[in-house]
Write a structure and sequence with these properties.
Structural class: alpha/beta
Enzyme class: transferase
Number of strands: 14
Pfam family, one: Ketoacyl-synt_C
CATH class of the largest domain: Alpha Beta
Largest sheet: 10 strands, mixed
Distance between the termini: 21 Å
Helix content: 25-40%
Number of helices: 13
Order of helices and strands: EHEEHHEHHHEHEHEHEHEHEHHEEEE
Number of domains: 2
Protein name: 3-oxoacyl-[acyl-carrier-protein] synthase 2
InterPro entries: 3-oxoacyl-ACP_synth-2, Beta-ketoacyl_synthase, Ketoacyl_synth_AS, Ketoacyl_synth_C, Ketoacyl_synth_N, PKS_Beta-ketoAc_synthase_dom, Thiolase-like
Shape: globular
CATH topology of the largest domain: Peroxisomal Thiolase, Chain A, domain 1
EC number: 2.3.1.179
CATH superfamily of the largest domain: Thiolase/Chalcone synthase
Strand order of the largest sheet: 5-4-6-7-1-8-14-13-9-10
Length: about 425
């Protein structure tokens, strides 16, 4: 089958370390932590009292008040990130065929705050059902893609993937396949999440998944450090404009990178724990490499899932060594979650943006907060600790894994005309 080439022509991001792509990159290269005490609610009684929240964001600056009150915050983030990406791609909405533009988005949880608030209000009452008529549209995850499609009139495939923390990467793999198979010419793809709520923090605390380093939030996300004690929850959104190469060329688009491979696998092992030998991670990276038609030695940088959990970090490092062999020592590896926290279903979206920017700037962002080495990891692996590193970056592999054993990987390539 003659598959079409797929390129990235627009980027958008709304993150705990920057509300635009340029600010996000500044935060990444300078090793800025987005973690701080929670302001979304009073977290005094919670085991974890901090998170990586989006900062200095006023939804009224982006969405009409009447409209945004009918949406959950995760949908706000979706609209803002996608708007930046569409503007960045310089799409002329009057000239493109909107029947051939898809919106394929990812959200692991969706409108958690809206669900929590409505049920809480009902529980306080006398049992008489008084629910907001927009309760269901605010809550369901697919409305993030729906809002984007409605705003811009995009009439191609329109849906949301729900694959836990791998949701956004799942969405981008799907969009990649629709474009290269010739079903559409262009897609808005990425993900958004807004789960820093009482139920979100409380639920992950009950799972013992979150760091409890309340005395030093900014250093709590420390992937591959001996003293890592769980992930730090983040929120926000990221968007890519994925476009068929000839379509992009014909309209004179600026091209950031080419998307050349997408991998998919399952651990088939446990609800929340990764396979201890990294089996699913091994399979998904191999699948992405095979899909791209390249050898492992071509990869220069891996933006890892790297959540700062004891089991997850180790499993991924084991998988990398098994897939890449001796070449693993030539790679740069880094976890940008050390700065942004873990955006759950949106994680893959902002990490794809980070990966593409690493190619653009020929710079690998760091894994910050490394203090104590862990003898479980091969000390010859380059985790890009604490400081960004300039190097030649032609191919980047981006890993995203989710509860339930969902694994997705993307491979971006510096464009060759």
């Amino acid at each position: 089958m003659n598959l079409r080439r797929v390129v990235v022509t627009g980027l958008g991001s709304l993150t705990p370390i920057g509300n635009t792509v340029s600010d996000f990159w500044d935060g990444l290269k300078n090793g800025v932590s987005g973690a701080a005490p929670i302001t979304n609610f009073d977290a005094e009684k919670f085991k974890t009292q901090f998170a990586c929240e989006v900062k200095n964001f006023n939804v009224n600056d982006h969405i009409d008040r009447r409209e945004h009150r009918r949406m959950d915050k995760f949908a706000h983030y979706a609209l803002v990130a996608s708007e930046e990406a569409i503007k960045d791609a310089q799409l002329d909405l009057d000239k493109i065929n909107k029947d051939r533009v898809g919106v394929i988005w990812g959200a692991g949880i969706g409108g958690l705050k809206s669900f929590q608030d409505e049920v809480s209000e009902f529980a306080k009452g006398d049992g008489t059902p008084r629910f907001n008529p927009f309760f269901i549209p605010k809550m369901i995850a697919d409305l993030s893609a729906g809002h984007i499609s409605i705003k811009y009139g995009f009439r191609g495939p329109n849906y949301v993937t729900v694959s836990a923390c791998a949701s956004a990467t799942n969405a981008m793999v799907d969009a990649f396949n629709y474009i290269r198979l010739g079903r559409i010419d262009l897609a808005v793809s990425g993900g958004s999440e807004a789960a820093i709520t009482e139920s979100g923090i409380g639920g992950f605390n009950a799972l013992k998944a979150l760091s409890q380093r309340n005395d030093s939030p900014e250093t709590a996300s420390r992937p591959f450090d001996k003293d890592r004690d769980g992930f730090v929850m983040g929120e926000g959104g990221g968007a890519l404009i994925l476009e068929e190469y000839e379509h992009a060329k014909a309209r004179g688009a600026t091209i950031y990178a080419e998307l050349v491979g997408g991998g998919m696998s399952s651990d088939a092992y446990h609800l929340t724990a990764p396979h201890p030998e990294g089996l699913g991670a091994i399979n998904v990276m191999k699948d992405a490499l095979n899909d791209a038609g390249i050898a492992p030695e071509a990869i220069d940088y891996i933006n890892v899932h790297g959540t700062s959990t004891p089991l997850g970090d180790l499993s991924e490092a084991i998988a990398i060594q098994k897939v890449f062999g001796e070449h693993a020592y030539n790679l740069n590896i880094s976890s940008t979650k050390s700065m942004t926290g873990h955006l759950l279903g949106a994680a893959g979206a902002i990490e794809a943006v980070a990966s593409i920017l690493a190619i653009k700037h020929q710079t690998v962002p760091p894994t910050i907060n490394h203090v104590t080495g862990d003898e479980q990891f091969d000390q010859k692996l380059n985790f890009t600790f604490n400081k960004a590193q300039e190097r030649e970056v032609n191919y980047v592999l981006c890993n995203t894994f989710g509860f339930g054993g969902h694994n997705f990987s993307l491979i971006f390539k510096k464009l060759e005309m």
